[in-house]
Every structure is written in structure tokens, then in C-alpha cells.
Amino acid sequence: MFIDGLSVPARSGRRMTVTDPTTGQAFETVPLGGSEDADAAIVSAMRTFEGWKRVPMTERARLQKACAQAMRENAESIGAVLQRELGRPLAGCVSEIARSADLLDIYAEEGLRLRAAMPLGSAPGERIVITRDPVGVVVAITPFNYPITLLMFKLGAALIAGCPVVAKPSEETPLSTLMLARLFHDTGLPAGLFNVVTGDRALGEALVAHPVPRKVAFTGSVPAGKAIAAACAGTMKRVTLELGGHSAAIVCADADLDRAAAAITRHGFANSGQFCYRVNRVYIERPVYDAMLERLAAGAKALTLAPAGGQGDLGPLVNDRIFANSESQIADARAKGARILTGGTRATGPGYDAGCYLPPTLIAEATPEMLIMQDETFGPVIGLAPVDSPAEALRLTNESRFGLAGFVFTRDLATGLALCEGIEAGSVWLNDIRRSSHHVPFGGMKESGLGREKGRYGVESYLEYKTMYLSWEEAL
């Protein structure tokens, strides 16, 4: 682990394995931390907090920008480690490092734009100052799918706000986070400002239950997020929770079908479907249903799997548990009468047998009772359903406990705006799908989470308002 500027073992001496998803073989071990390790990391962070919160914003921004540049300069080496533990093709891993560095820069710039306020309505001999204080030590718990990006969502905002971070990466992808902590320390971050502890769920529970941290920032599943929120209530910790998604796309009869199919295919199958705001289900108006299916199938079939040691567009799913969810949703759809348009069965053969490879899968004639239209998949599977009107599509989109993202395709601007405003989700795209911007808020409604990350909105979530009433005897 990385605590107080040093690489340290777990107090228990125990370790856990890290597996290459393309081969199924363990290739490294990391410490299996427990409550004593959680305490050591938090105590280190608390010591550092006393000094870091007094560091001028300009110096915090300078250090953060230096760390961002160090990420760019080491993107290939960090990306190679990430590729080994995640299984995603190398180009995507290197791109993740570079894009995450951009977010660090943006957070640094947002920090420089923070302001205090002095209202003019004070009484004679009094001034009121409204300022912002850092919340304190932050626990950041991140998943495997975009481990560096989702860590930067939290770390970049916390550091510039004046908060030290204790990070617990996913058990599947701890190595890239550990590498990053060492890199940032060597770049100049003070010891204890960014600690990394590795372990399983028990370690996460110890971090959340600890009385010192004042905030927990978590990206992961809905059940885990609910458990964290309940545990944080005991000590009134703040929470930012970016949880599951089951995002729907609506394709109207007048849409540019080629553009819609390209966007849905690109977004729905990126990272083998292993991210929260991907297209999970699509509602298509009947007059263009068959034509849209034809285009989507052509796009899905054009994507290639990257075998162990080989090249391709998509890697394997990270482990058997994640694969099993896709498998069960496909089986459920088959049993309930759906048509498997593409994919649907595990890829086998040389280079594939040892990994959880699933070709891009499209499920046509999906109906509301099917799991694919109800629950997050986190795999390369998309449900497709015909609808009779945009209003029906909107109703079905919102009949979900999730509300992370939505997507609309129509040439009619009035219809598009009405659908975008009507979708109950934190982010909505019209007529294209691109990655979420670093400058604007990102997060979900309903069971997709609490709070927002990115841009000034992310920084503000690590600050407390403080009102100071300053009085003196009038001199004149």
C-alpha cells in the first residue's frame, strides 16, 4: 500500500492476487489491508490536513498541474499496467490516463476561481464574510472499469479544495492507482495527502465507519452505495454517490438513422459495456424499427474482440461475476421470446478460452418484463424495443429506478427538447453521444446516486460554507 509517502505491507502480512482478465492468470499480488491499515492511512491524512488546508490556492493549483503533467509524461507506462489488470486494449488505457490528467487541470483552474463573499447588508461596525472551508479527510472508493478517471473525479476536486484523500481502489485494478500515488508523491505532493490502501469489502467498511473522515466519495453499485450512505449517517459524513445506470436511448421516426446507429454502437459497447452511463436499452419508433436494427447489427458485427496478446476493439469482461450478469440477462430474454440479433454466446477458441469474452450482443423485441430492460447489465448487451410514439418511449424510459443518463435522436428540435427535458436523468444527449464534459456536473437522479462531480460543482462538494461576523467599534 502507499501510506504517508511510503510503500508498506498490510499489518497482517496478508496479500491478495491481481488477475489478467485476458488469460485468467494471477500475475501480481498486493496487500490485503484491514482496519489497522485503514486507521494508519486516515491518521496520516489527518496529520497532513492541518498543513495542507493552509497552503495557498495558487500553490495547490501549481502542484496539481504538475501532477497532471506527470500523468501525461507517464501515460504509456501507467496505461500498460492498467491494460494488464483490466484487459482493455492498450490505446483505451493510455487515453484514460491522458483524459484524467485533463480533469486534474480543470479542477486546479476551478480552485483558482473560488471566491469568498462580503454581503453589503451588514450593520454599522460589522462585516459579514462568507467563506469556504475544506470538509476534511476524504475516503474515495472506486470501481474497476475506469479506475483512474473515476479516482480523478474525486481526488482532483478534494486536493484543490484542501482535503487529503485515502483511496481504496477495486480489488481487480489496484496496481495503476498505487503507481499513480507514487508518481504524485515524487512530483511533490506532501506525504499523507494521497494514501492508497488495498483490500476487500471489509477494508472499505472499516474506512467508511472510521470516525475521522468527513466525506466518502464512492462510485459503484446501488446496493453498495445504499450501505455506504446508511453507514455514513452514523457520523454525519457527507457522501457523493455515483451509482448504477440503465440509460435509455430514444430513436424517433424522423431521426438520422446512420448517425444514431453509429453513436449507440460506439457508446453502448465501449469498454465492453463496462461503464455506468452507457446505452443499455433503446426504444425505436415502429416505422424505422427494422431499418434501425439493420444498422445497429452492422455496427455491432464490425467490432472485433482482442484476444490475449492480440489486437481488437473490445477486451474481455473483467471477471466471471461481471460476465454472469450479461449471461443471465441474455438467457432471460431468450426464455421470454426475444430475438438475439447479434452475439449472445461466449467467444471461444485460441486467445479467448481463458477470458470472459462476449461479442457485442443486440436483443431485439425486448419487452419491459425482461431483465435487459430493467437492470443494469455492465456488459456488451443492449435491449431493443419498438414503440408507437415518442411519448410511449419517454414513459418507458422513466419507468426505471435509475436516472443517470439518457439519449434522444430526432430531427425535430421541439420534440428533442421536450424529450430531453422530460427524461429523468442527470445528463441527456441530443442527436449524438460523446463523453461527459469535464466542465459540467455529472451524476444521477433516483437510485443512480447523490451529488455531482466534475467542474466547479465537483470542487464545491468538498467545501463547507462558513459565515464570519466581524464587529468593531466605529472610529468615525
Automatic annotation (TrEMBL):
Keyword Oxidoreductase found: yes
**Can you provide one Gene Ontology molecular function annotated for this UniProt record?**
succinate-semialdehyde dehydrogenase (NAD+) activity
For this entry, the protein name equals NAD-dependent succinate-semialdehyde dehydrogenase
| Source lineage | Bacteria, Pseudomonadati, Pseudomonadota, Alphaproteobacteria, Rhodobacterales
Q: What's the family? A: Belongs to the aldehyde dehydrogenase family.
Instruction: List residues of the Aldehyde dehydrogenase domain.
Output: 11-467
Task: Cite the entry's keywords alphabetically.
Answer: Oxidoreductase
Superkingdom of this protein's organism: Bacteria
Keyword Nucleotide-binding attached: no
Q: Alphabetically, which GO biological process terms does the record hold?
A: gamma-aminobutyric acid catabolic process
